[in-house]
Amino acid sequence: MQAPFDKSSPETYSAVFLKARRQFIHLWGEMASHWGISKTMAQIFALLFSTPYPMDTDSIMEELFISRGNAHINLKKLIEWGLVRKLEKIDARRDFYIAEKDIWVLTINIIQHRQNQEIFPIAEAIQNLLQSLKTQTEKAPPSPSINFPTNEQLLQTQLEDLLLVIQKLNLLAEIILPILMEKDWRRLDTVFQKLQQA
């Protein structure tokens, strides 16, 4: 459901609000490198998330001192992640954007995006590498050091362990996602309590 356009303007906000918003935007931008995203992408999300009304591209550019091209590229990425939506206002020629405000939905979208773009591809790549390594190892002549694993065997073991960790993390995500979709804090707490007791 599209959010209604708020008639508020930046001028109606208190100095306390604007200062807190600037600090939040700065914090999110500084954390961007740890999450593997650009600083601008993080700042645009923080700006839209902390602003209760939709903003157009010009307003975003003015607030963050960024170019139009930079704004468009990162807004597109945020939309792909499911963190920002573009709203079309019939009586305006400009596109307006608003961040997803529901923390549950944000968390779900981030997890699913990470799965699709990172977890699934790397797991598939490691599986293919393991299969290729096994095939090549079987064709290779036996090692003269019978009592010691070969470099290929050691690498195979490391890759198998890595793949197992990735699969377990993905399994944990698959367990948590339905709970997040139901917005069930109690069940989520139960899952984490069991993990802590394990």
Describe it:
The chain is mainly alpha-helical. The chain folds into two domains: 92 residues, Winged helix-like DNA-binding domain superfamily/Winged helix DNA-binding domain (Arc Repressor Mutant, subunit A), CATH 1.10.10.10; 94 residues. It has seven helices and three strands; from the N terminus they run H-H-E-H-H-E-E-H-H-H. A three-stranded antiparallel β-sheet has the order 1-3-2. The protein is elongated.
Q: Order of strands across the biggest sheet?
A: 1-3-2
| CA radius of gyration | 23 Å
Q: Helix/strand/pairing class, anyone?
A: mainly alpha
What is the oligomeric state here?
A: single chain
Low-confidence stretches: 1-8
Brief digest:
This protein is mainly alpha-helical. Helices cover 69% and strands 6% of the residues.
Features:
single chain; 198 residues; mainly alpha; Arc Repressor Mutant, subunit A; elongated
Topology:
Layout: H1 15-35, H2 39-50, E1 55-56, H3 57-64, H4 68-81, E2 84-88, E3 95-99, H5 103-139, H6 151-182, H7 185-197
Antiparallel strand pairs: 1-3, 2-3
Helix pairs in contact: 1-2, 2-4, 5-6
